[in-house]
Design brief:
Immunoglobulin-like, 3-hydroxy-3-methylglutaryl-coenzyme A Reductase, Chain A, domain 2, alpha+beta, about 525 residues, six-stranded mixed sheet, 21 strands, 15 helices
């Protein structure tokens, strides 16, 4: 299996070349995929190969294996995100000067791999600042307690709540570094909400994590109203996740010709990208030319994962092949800020990032009057006035407060909360029917959710996903439909409160307005 040189060098942990009592050491971290390290062929320092008997591999705090034992055992597992510390019995001085470190090995399923990096040798005591950490066992109880004690000493306060938790810290690898405890956010429930989706079908009681008074009550009131009129219809209409590299050329003509070459080689670029994952599927690549820059926006399907890391790895591999096969590229960056990761943007509103999902309902006039004490004409008129306010402000959301429900569900279900930046965009639309009822619809063009991977498998987060039957593979479109439906409930509830002047009085009753 071909691995681009730019991707292969990512196996080395930069800054890990360290002087030890018996020589030097450095760290290798598997950032490709689950593999088996079959044979260590050689290690070199400044072009000089090191005798294999001077090399030892450390896979955990108490587990060391020599090169001879590695070969005798016909290899050892090297799983994704696993770190191996390589110890080399060479007496070397600490120096700010860069040294050339080379390594050649064979691993299944990649075959023979070799690369060279530059790094300087540092003192072990100078690595990582003052926070206690252990490269090989950073989630063990001893190291966690050491960090807790350090934090208490540094702040002069006790960890009375943060240090109490029910999750297994060893399951947090890949989720957090320097772990000391948890932040507890209150969770309330709203519903049931009747949803007529293609994936979410039935009644759902929804967990909402928040510290904002009235939020759960408001959403619950909106759900009651929607149920009285038959519930919500929800539809996922698009699905895409992006990474947007930029390639820099001598001039604009070079950038233009490069884009033509990319189009001609799309099959190979897709092959290289998809080789990094059994899930990621490259659907298409947009191109945008400006000055002497060629911006490529890779678009993927990512299954039930949110997929930012997945598409980053896939695009990195594809770009590695491009760099190895196209001459004239002066510079390259994996992310050009054009995917607008964790940022609201017009391109994501137009082109989709995550799931593009619409929730809609027709609410009977008598139900609005009965539950909300407001006539459909009042909400419709207020919506048109608010549309002018939206235009004047340049906001990315013509609704009222969709990020409230989205954030509360994100925290409860283990989503990446920073993705509320993109997911906050929404297009709200309403109209009066011939019968005097109110049709309402909201489209969320860049809702980034996951039901597998990331933080979805941790303790309370997994539990909340399981409560709405949205944990695991094959459930992400269902979750997207539920989120959009909850958002619609919140929109109609707040719109009614503002139109009927109940907004402030509700906060006085349920919130913390004092």
């Amino acid at each position: 299996m071909f691995v681009p040189s730019i991707l292969l060098k990512q196996l080395y942990t930069h800054g890990s070349l360290t002087k030890t009592e018996k020589g030097i050491s450095f760290a290798l971290k598997n950032r490709l995929k689950d593999a088996t390290l079959k044979e260590l062929k050689w290690i070199s320092l400044d072009g000089e190969k090191v005798a294999t008997h001077k090399i030892t591999l450390q896979t955990s705090k108490d587990s060391h294996i020599s090169v001879e034992e590695l070969h005798k055992n016909k290899g050892m597992p090297f799983s994704l995100r696993q770190t191996i510390t390589v110890h080399v019995a060479l007496d070397q001085a600490v120096s700010p000067e860069k040294r050339k470190l080379g390594i050649c090995f064979s691993a299944s399923p990649f075959g023979k791999l070799k690369f060279e990096v530059e790094d300087n040798i540092t003192e072990a005591t100078k690595r990582g600042g003052h926070i206690p950490r252990d490269d090989l066992d950073d989630y063990g109880s001893a190291m966690i307690q050491a960090r807790q004690a350090y934090f208490e000493s540094a702040t002069g306060n006790k960890l009375n709540h943060v240090a109490k938790y029910s999750i297994d810290p060893n399951e947090l690898k890949g989720n957090i570094e320097h772990f000391i405890g948890v932040a507890q956010v209150p969770i309330g429930i709203a519903g049931p909400l009747t949803i007529h989706g293609e994936h979410a079908k039935g009644d759902f009681v929804v967990p909402l994590a928040t510290t904002e008074g009235t939020l759960v009550a408001s959403y619950n009131r909106g759900m009651k109203l929607l149920n009285m009129s038959g519930g919500v219809t929800a539809t996922v209409v698009d699905d895409a996740m992006q990474r947007a590299p930029v390639f820099i050329f001598e001039n604009a003509r070079g950038a233009r010709d490069f884009v033509a070459w990319v189009k001609q080689n799309m099959d190979k670029i897709r092959e290289e990208a998809e080789a990094t994952s059994s899930i990621a599927k490259l659907t298409y690549v947009d191109h945008f030319l400006s000055n002497k820059f060629a911006f490529l926006r890779f678009n993927y399907k990512t299954g039930d994962a949110a997929g930012q890391n997945m598409v980053g790895r896939a695009t990195f591999a594809a770009c590695g092949w491009i760099l190895d096969n196209y001459e004239g590229i002066k510079n390259f960056y994996l992310e050009s800020n054009f995917a607008t990761d964790k940022k609201a943007s017009q391109i994501n509103i137009m082109r989709t990032r995550g799931k593009r999902v619409t929730a809609e309902a027709t609410i009977k006039r008598e139900h609005l009057l009965q539950v909300m004490r407001v006539d459909p004409k009042q909400i419709d008129y207020h919506g048109r006035v608010a549309g002018v306010g939206s235009f004047l402000s340049g906001v990315n959301n013509t609704g009222l407060h969709s990020p409230n429900g989205i954030t509360a569900m994100f925290i409860a279900t283990g989503q990446d909360v920073a993705n509320v930046s993109e997911s906050s965009a929404a297009m709200m639309y309403s109209e009066l029917t011939d019968e005097g009822d109110l049709y309402v619809s909201i489209t969320i063009p860049s809702l980034i959710v996951a039901t597998y991977g990331g933080g979805t498998g941790i303790g309370t987060q997994r539990e909340c996903l399981e409560l709405i039957d949205c944990y695991g593979k094959g459930k992400v479109h269902k979750l997207a439909e539920i989120v959009a439906s909850v958002v619609l409930a919140g929109e109609i509830s707040l719109a009614s409160a503002i139109s009927s002047s109940d907004w402030v009085s509700s906060h006085e009753q349920y919130g913390r307005n004092r």
